[in-house]
């Protein structure tokens, strides 16, 4: 099992420090990353938490998946590897007649 967890349905006002504090109940948190919109800088409502061991990651899933955090029911599961996607170059390949 991997140590990196996907955390979904986060409140937009949640900070990395609040998430770190919450997840430290399950063990040692090695990193927290909140995903934000590039254009606005606002949180997108999900992020990633990395625990020190696979056992601590499993404990965090057991403790927090479906549980309330700041008024929202969290989704907590093992993070999937990032998929490689083709780069978009400003949508130049629109097709059709220019």
Mean pLDDT: 90
Question: What strand line-up does the widest sheet have?
Answer: 2-3-1-6
Terminal-residue CA separation: 51 Å
Instruction: Report the major sheet.
Output: 4 strands, antiparallel
Radius of gyration from CA coordinates: 17 Å
CATH-defined architecture: 2-Layer Sandwich
Question: Element order, helices and strands?
Answer: EHEEHEEE
Q: What oligomerization state is this entry in?
A: single chain
- How many domains make up the 3D coordinates? 1
Flag low-confidence runs.
Answer: none
The CATH class name reads Alpha Beta
As for the CATH topology, it is Alpha-Beta Plaits
Please count the beta strands (DSSP E, at least 2 residues each).
6
Query: Level of helix content?
Result: 10-25%
Backbone shape: globular
Count of DSSP-assigned helices: 2
Task: Summarize the structure in words.
The protein is α+β, with helices and mostly antiparallel strands and 98 residues long. It has a single domain, classed as 2-Layer Sandwich (Alpha-Beta Plaits). It has 2 helices and 6 strands, in the order E-H-E-E-H-E-E-E. The strands form 2 sheets. A 4-stranded antiparallel sheet has the order 2-3-1-6. The protein has a two-stranded antiparallel ribbon with strand order 4-5. A hairpin with a 6-residue loop joins strand 2 and strand 3. The longest helix is centred in the middle third of the chain and has 11 residues. The protein is globular and about 45 Å long.
């Amino acid at each position: 099992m991997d140590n990196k967890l996907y955390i979904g349905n986060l409140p937009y006002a949640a900070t990395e420090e609040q998430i770190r504090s919450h997840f430290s109940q399950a063990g040692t948190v090695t990193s927290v990353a909140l995903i934000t919109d590039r254009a606005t800088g606002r949180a997108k409502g999900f992020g990633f938490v990395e625990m020190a061991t696979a056992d601590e990651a499993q404990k965090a899933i057991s403790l927090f998946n479906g549980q309330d955090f700041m008024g929202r029911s969290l989704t907590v599961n093992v993070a999937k590897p990032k998929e490689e996607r083709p780069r978009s170059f400003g949508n130049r390949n629109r097709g059709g007649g220019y």
